[in-house]
Amino acid sequence: MDSLLGIGLVSRRTGLTQHVIRIWERRYGAVKPDRTATKRRRYSVGDLERLNLLSLLTRSGHGIGSVAGMPTASLRELVGGLSGKAAPAPASPVETKLVESFIEECVAAIRSFDGGRLQAALRHLETRLGAHGSLQRGVAPLVCIVGELWRMGDVTVAHEHFASVEIRRFLSSATRSYAQGESAPLLLVATPAGQLHELGALLASSAAGNMGWRVVHLGVGLPAAEIAGAAVQSRARAVALSLVHPEDDPALGPELLKLRELLPGEIPIIIGGRAVRGYRDTVRRIKAIHLEDLGRFCATLDKLRTLRPAGKGC
Amino acid sequence: MDSLLGIGLVSRRTGLTQHVIRIWERRYGAVKPDRTATKRRRYSVGDLERLNLLSLLTRSGHGIGSVAGMPTASLRELVGGLSGKAAPAPASPVETKLVESFIEECVAAIRSFDGGRLQAALRHLETRLGAHGSLQRGVAPLVCIVGELWRMGDVTVAHEHFASVEIRRFLSSATRSYAQGESAPLLLVATPAGQLHELGALLASSAAGNMGWRVVHLGVGLPAAEIAGAAVQSRARAVALSLVHPEDDPALGPELLKLRELLPGEIPIIIGGRAVRGYRDTVRRIKAIHLEDLGRFCATLDKLRTLRPAGKGC
DNA sequence: CATTCTTTGACAATCTATTGACGATTCTGA
DNA sequence: TCAGAATCGTCAATAGATTGTCAAAGAATG
């Protein structure tokens, strides 16, 4: 077994303290790293994955003592099914087929304004791919496709709104990870003034909730001053914005600048959504973190949680 | 059996207090979790489902004592057949006190962006007043008050948006629509172009869902043509509009006229919300049914369902 | 030599179990 | 209609378990 990672590295990559890693080993035998001749721990990539899984599970409410002893495969299953993210994206042919038929079914349901059918499809996918997998590989693509259909005039505004409402109903009821306690970092999610499409923001909120963040979701079309005020008052660790529809709103650039100005410097701004391209310069100017897909968004959240409080330079 | 969920986790996922979970176990044997060597409860996913079902059932009026002993399959069945119907309307002094403290608690939660606290208050009220009663006598007033606070500048736009999102999350999870088959009448709910406040519409949708209507909720800010198109396509029996904020939008009058024109004559338009007064003439002109409060809205729905067997066979 | 790592014991904060009691509501039978 | 009984959620207090964090001292690394 190639065990070559030092504890410092593992600590940084998992977001766990070195202390915690050692304690988990000593008390629960969570991992059993090799040792060098001089007793230093050497972790394998398998250990790394294991620790990442355990980190996710403890964050979403499991006691470490009850999961530390399980085989890695079971951990993966628990993570996929109950709350966390499914880091590996295997994209097997079976799965792509599943997702394809899912999308097809959803679009048909939307076209006929059949809410029950849409909810059924969403639930079905969730049982197959888990909370996070269904978001990343099912709902997110669906949202894009609906947007596309609308832009091409293939479905009406009413269809698009209807889909938004139903998808958001699903997301609301699927995301239950409330009450993470005061200690969990807080993400503020919103859409700046002029941006009225809410699904991107909702996806972000759900994903963040699944990953153990507390989330304050402010919805759609908020002026910069409001966002900044709320962020300060709720002591958010980061602010996430979603830009989807108008790609050329001249008022949005100044709005973003103002937000950066009003927001304390240590609170990063994360921006995602297909319309970002229209405001690229501004986004760069305010040093926002630009993320195109949900997977990267999750990875960034993980990094932010561990890097920020320690004050470690990024 | 794989029993690995701690009571804390189960509590968060079911919305039940740890205390309640334990009491249900002790008094009614609702679940029989395994124990660790140190007597801690370990729940299986089956237990989790069971508790979720029981939570739903008690919230909609069943006594815990009468359902706690039933096999899980029967619980599922019972939940499937749920369709609101609770809490007539006693309006006792005890209740007004309850509602008052509820509102107070909610406003405090909103001011501090505390979603968990807000959800807890909402749930609590629901257990006391039932699905229907809590809507009519708790949530509806709350919505009005939040709107009032916002208009007076007493809370910011961010607070108002935040409240909208959380209340709508509650409504989404509380409303058990889709239980009805093809035969149930269908109500289309929306907000016309220019009207961007969605809570009124959402309340209407929930109430209608509770009363056994199928609901197509189109959300906020839709042009007349879109509403009419969707109504025709989904074969709605009625269209409900909510008017809340701009009371003097000159574009809204023509929009309403256009809607009446595009809509088949046998489909009535129901209009509610505090901004209706600003458009009184138009509302009268299009022969819309104007309803000021949720109670009358429900009554009207009942009448429409029975009086309007327009297409008796379908 | 500064930094990183290991081990150990101790500590504090949080979570959990159990018990008994309390108060509000609802049910029941006269 | 009314008193008593039953139902049901909540609370408080104590004891014990679980889990993250810390400090100190020595060893290894580069």
Explain this structure to me?
The structure is a homodimer of 314-residue chains. Chain A has 314 residues and is an alpha/beta fold. Chain A folds into 3 domains: 3-82, Multidrug-efflux Transporter Regulator, Chain: A, Domain 2; 93-174, Orthogonal Bundle (Methyltransferase, Methionine Synthase (B12-binding Domains), Chain A, domain 1); 186-310, Rossmann fold. The first copy, chain A, has helices at 7-14, 18-28, 45-59, 64-67, 72-83, 93-111, 115-151, 157-174, 199-210, 224-233, 252-262, 280-285, 294-310, and strands at residues 3-5, 34-35, 41-44, 186-190, 214-217, 238-242, 269-272, 289-291. In chain A, the strands form 2 sheets. Chain A has a 5-stranded parallel sheet, with helices on both faces. In chain A, helix 7 (115-151) crosses helix 9 (199-210). Chain A is globular. Mean pLDDT of chain A is 82; it is low at 81-90 and 308-314. The interface between A and B is large, with 46 and 45 residues. Chain B binds a DNA duplex (30 and 30 nucleotides) through helix 2.
Briefly note the CATH topology name of the largest domain in chain A: Rossmann fold
> Could you tell me the number of beta strands of chain A?
8
Percent of residues in β-strands of chain A: 5-15%
Could you describe the largest sheet of chain A, including whether it forms a barrel?
A: 5 strands, parallel
Number of domains of chain A: 3
Mean pLDDT figure of chain A:
82
CATH homologous superfamily annotation of the largest domain in chain A: Cobalamin-binding domain
Largest interface: A-B, 46 and 45 residues
What's the architecture of the largest domain in chain A, going by CATH?
A: 3-Layer(aba) Sandwich
Rg of chain A, Cα atoms, Å: 21 Å
**Beginning-to-end CA distance, first to last residue of chain A:** 32 Å
Given as residue ranges, the uncertain stretches of chain A (5+ residues, pLDDT < 50) are: 81-90, 308-314
Question: What is the CATH top level name of the largest domain in chain A?
Answer: Alpha Beta
N to C succession of SSEs of chain A:
EHHEEHHHHHHEHEHEHEHEH
What is the quaternary state of this protein? homodimer
C-alpha geometry of chain A: globular
State the helicity of chain A in percent bands: 55-70%
Strand line-up of the largest beta sheet of chain A: 5-4-6-7-8
Quickly give the structural class of chain A: alpha/beta
Q: Give the helix tally of chain A.
A: 13
